[in-house]
Amino acid sequence: MSVAPYPEVGRVRSFLDFYATMIRTAISSQVQYRVAHYFYMLGMVAEPVIYIVVWTTIAKAHGGSVNGITAGQFAAYYIVWTLVRNMNVVFGAPYWEWRIREGELSGQLLRPLHPINYDIGWFAGSKFVNVVLWIPIGAALYAVFHPTLSPTVLQGVVFFFAIWGAYFLRTFIQSTIGMLNFWTTRGAAVFDLYMTAELLLSGRLVPLKLMPGWVQMISNFFPFKWTFFFPIEALVGNLSTRSLLLGLAAQIGWTIGMVVLFKFAWRAAIKRFSAVGG
Amino acid sequence: MNVLRVGWLYLKMGVLNELQYRVNFFVQLFQALIQVAVALVVLALVYSHTTTLNGWTQPELLTLMGVQILLGGIIHTFVQPNMGRLMDDVQKGTLDQALTKPEDAQLLVSVREVRIWSLVEVVSGSIVLIVGSSRLQSTLGGLDTLAFLAALSLGAVMLYCFWLVITTGAFWIVRMDHVLELFEGIYATGRFPVGIYPSWMRYGVTFLVPVGFAVTVPAQALTARLHGLTLLGAAGFALALFIFTRWFWRFGLKRYSGASA
Predict the structure, then answer these.
(1) Cβ of A50 and B188 within 8 Å?
(2) How deeply is B172 buried, as exposed, middle or buried, from its count of CB atoms within 10 A (0-12, 13-18, 19+)?
(3) pLDDT exceeding 90 applies to what percent of chain B?
């Protein structure tokens, strides 16, 4: 008896099946650690709250605005920041070191799919839990800091895609940097450098408008601002329809570029891998 | 006396252990440089849009940031590694090994680990602090310096207590992932004077989480803002917090049932 050849449709479907299962597993697993999750959230929320307080203090001392940004707009920027931050947390570069050192990777290489699929699926799943747990925090921040926020439907739609775009883009940025761990056990130093560049050039620290002109110029040559500034600005700013759509296109472009870079880095890196336990 | 002897012995062991990993020194140095650079960028950004922040001038805020980095270095060197190990021990049930020793358990869990390379932050923080305070209008007297050192020590005690209270939570929660992020996030509020926060938050980061006390009060001593009464209040608060921490630690310990052996 002969077995019918595996149809191409089956491959796509099993791929989607895999992702659906990963996401479901991540959700049910993440829900169990709510307390730990709130530790993380509260620690994370401290950062934008500090920024809101500092910039509204300055705005109030200078007749209500800094560079044309009002206290309410600062509040809106940094509150949306918290949601974007939740979405762009990914399997970080330092964890590649752990994965290699502990021999985790050996087992993962034996699976039929590239390990990054597991990372993407797992973290995508935990986003659903993150966002649900974020809602009370977002509501509290809204009540306390009175943001000026009135997005249009289009802005909302673009924002929805932009936060997922930020998630994918940041996944591939961090995974590419993670490849360095195949060469060195001191990847942390490079990672710190990356985090600093991202902090300053992404709009994470301040809306890019507050940066000196030359910093804004430099930020155009890096993918970072598409993971913070663009999604936030899409919702709170007043970008034209054209800029919104072009922004999404730029995000996709950078993501494709980073995927290609990651593939190259992975091919070079995996040749250097020799198993450690597992 | 015994407390000091045991503490000193563990400290020596910890230092010897760490000295084996000398490259870590350079990694720490690099990280400290980045940390200072970011602090300076933030300072430059803030003061490119204003001349004073809630009454604090640029050199004054620089001094405050120096205090925050310095105190952070003390915590990273002596407190945080111990608390990390304690959480691990509770989760794995290996805390038995500390509890079965004849010495006081709170003392033992607080001195077992030391990361001396993090002292780099104490140095970098001190440099920032000295540069900041040398640009101040007023000159520092001997009394100010003494008050500063006293306030800094009290701040370290408060942060230790806060860490131990949180870590004691492991007896109930067991899995304490992300508690480090929680602390680092909240500790970052200390980069700015506690007075700038809205009142509900000011009380939060002063009494609930003593970062305001721990960082702002020493910085006040350096910037001629400190009243003797505040320092006295800080001393009283540190003492109360320490007593509460000790009680809470013992209370939590009752819930521990070893899982090792």
Answers:
(1) yes
(2) exposed
(3) 52
